């Protein structure tokens, strides 16, 4: 009782004193003066803990937000450019490039990022985009698989993501993917590490609040791969998951592990309806 | 020189005495509301040390989530937890000690980490490395004396 009264009081104070600073802002995002980005929308019915989805873009400073509005200012686009070259370059024993089968990424890859992670019938498992790319490399190109969260693959995911910017995230949560989705949900709410924190503790219960100077977002994946000013590179979803879990003083899961694949599907589904922004720019 | 050595010896004897009386994390006596009556270290806390621990990232790092006007020189306090101004008007020393040691005994399900707990974790890691730690090697986030120092600081935060 005492606690509730105190929280209510603290909440009221926060609204009076720090509301404008702490809450997500009301700016709107258009990239290159043509791609309109849905950065706020209603939460899907299967997400209990959120009513409105808010892109992480809203929780960043005006200066950081600005960097995402023009591809010439967005450092993440350098990774996209690097991947465009790789797209055209043959690799592996079959002497094929991505372009040999998929032609122009700007045409054939439109919409792909929106539906991943996605059930793969042949593998009988949910696949992330990284797994699909490495599947192409090892099965069709006769090339080595890339390191799951290395620069090569993250750049390629950024390229594939960039051509779907503005389209709403729409991963499937039912059908054959449902068991994996449930597993991801379980992980989302599991408190780990010596700090005993779940994803939900920060990104569902406390988004909009500050941990020291860090503004907590809802933790969506629509902006990934994300260029972070903090480490000055493109970051993959699993690399970010790993950093978050590590910061709970926990033993992390590995990038590409079944646990992180499941978690990515679940977290992606929490953002269904937000526009794809990757490569986004964040702190 | 000689004096420094004897001072060091005296200090280590004091430290041994303090350790001997410290309550182990798993032996802390919480009452039914989560309060802890007795000093965890068997010694009184030092409020100045506690203020340092409160604001220091490498010690308590309480400021990550809690603001305190008395520490206005520590920049960017967080607001995940309530401001602790006047916390000593709202809670007794024993209640504050219980909340710092393991807040879940007071508020079931709270986000606040337990600072004097070594077991019951899921996938505990070795500090912030992301690697596993053997359960028997887990140390509490703060020592008994550091918690007493924090308690001594927090009980000074009165507004009435």
Describe the structure.
The complex is a heterodimer of chains A (283) and B (160). With 283 residues, chain A is an alpha+beta fold. Chain A has 13 helices and eleven strands. Chain A starts with a helix and ends with a strand. Chain B contains five helices and no strands. Chain B has helices at 2-21, 47-55, 87-90, 93-102, 144-154. In chain B, helix 4 packs across helix 5 (144-154). Chain B is globular.
3D shape of chain B? globular
Give the strand tally of chain B.
0
CATH level-1 class of chain B: Mainly Alpha
Task: Please state how the strands of the largest beta sheet of chain A are arranged side by side.
Answer: 10-9-11
Number of strands of chain A: 11
Distance between the amino and carboxyl termini of chain A: 38 Å
Radius of gyration of chain B: 17 Å
Q: What CATH architecture of chain B do you see?
A: Orthogonal Bundle
Number of helical elements of chain B: 5
| Main β sheet profile of chain B | none
């Amino acid at each position: 009782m005492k606690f509730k009264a105190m929280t209510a009081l603290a909440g009221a104070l926060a609204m009076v004193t720090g509301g404008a600073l702490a809450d997500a802002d009301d700016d709107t995002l258009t990239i290159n003066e043509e791609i309109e980005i849905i950065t706020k929308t209603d939460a899907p019915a299967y997400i209990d803990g959120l009513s409105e989805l808010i892109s992480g873009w809203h929780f960043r400073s005006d200066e950081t937000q600005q960097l995402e509005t023009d591809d010439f200012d967005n450092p993440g686009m350098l990774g996209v450019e690097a991947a465009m070259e790789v797209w055209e370059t043959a690799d592996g024993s079959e002497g094929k490039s991505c372009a040999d089968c998929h032609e122009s990424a700007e045409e054939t890859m439109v919409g792909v990022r929106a539906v991943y992670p996605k059930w793969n019938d042949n593998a009988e498992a949910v696949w992330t985009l990284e797994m699909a790319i490495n599947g192409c490399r090892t099965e069709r190109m006769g090339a080595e698989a890339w390191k799951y969260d290395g620069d090569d693959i993250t750049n390629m995911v950024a390229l594939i993501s960039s051509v779907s910017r503005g389209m709403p995230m729409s991963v499937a949560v039912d059908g054959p993917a449902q068991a994996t989705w449930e597993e991801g949900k379980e992980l989302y709410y599991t408190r780990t590490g010596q700090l005993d924190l779940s994803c939900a503790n920060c990104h569902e219960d406390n988004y909009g609040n500050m941990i020291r100077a860090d503004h907590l977002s809802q933790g969506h994946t629509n902006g990934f791969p994300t260029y972070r000013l903090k480490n000055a590179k493109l970051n993959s979803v699993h690399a970010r998951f790993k950093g978050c879990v590590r910061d709970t003083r926990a033993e992390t899961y590995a990038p590409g592990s079944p646990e992180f694949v499941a978690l990515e599907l679940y977290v992606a589904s929490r953002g269904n309806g937000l526009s794809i922004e990757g490569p986004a720019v964040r702190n | 020189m000689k004096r420094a050595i004897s001072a060091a010896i005296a200090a280590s004897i004091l430290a041994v005495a303090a350790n001997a009386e410290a309550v182990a994390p798993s032996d802390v006596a919480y009452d039914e509301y989560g309060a802890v009556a007795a000093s965890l270290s068997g010694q009184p806390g030092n409020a100045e040390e506690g203020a340092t621990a409160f604001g220091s990232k490498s010690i308590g790092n309480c400021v990550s989530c809690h603001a305190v006007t008395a520490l206005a020189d520590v920049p960017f306090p967080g607001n995940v937890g309530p401001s602790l101004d006047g916390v000593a008007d709202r809670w007794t020393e024993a209640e504050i000690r219980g909340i710092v040691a393991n807040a879940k005994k007071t508020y079931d399900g709270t986000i606040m980490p337990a600072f004097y707990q070594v077991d019951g974790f899921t996938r505990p890691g070795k500090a912030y490395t992301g690697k596993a730690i053997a359960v028997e090697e887990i140390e509490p986030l703060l020592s008994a004396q550091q918690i007493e120092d924090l308690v001594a600081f927090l009980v000074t935060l009165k507004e009435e």
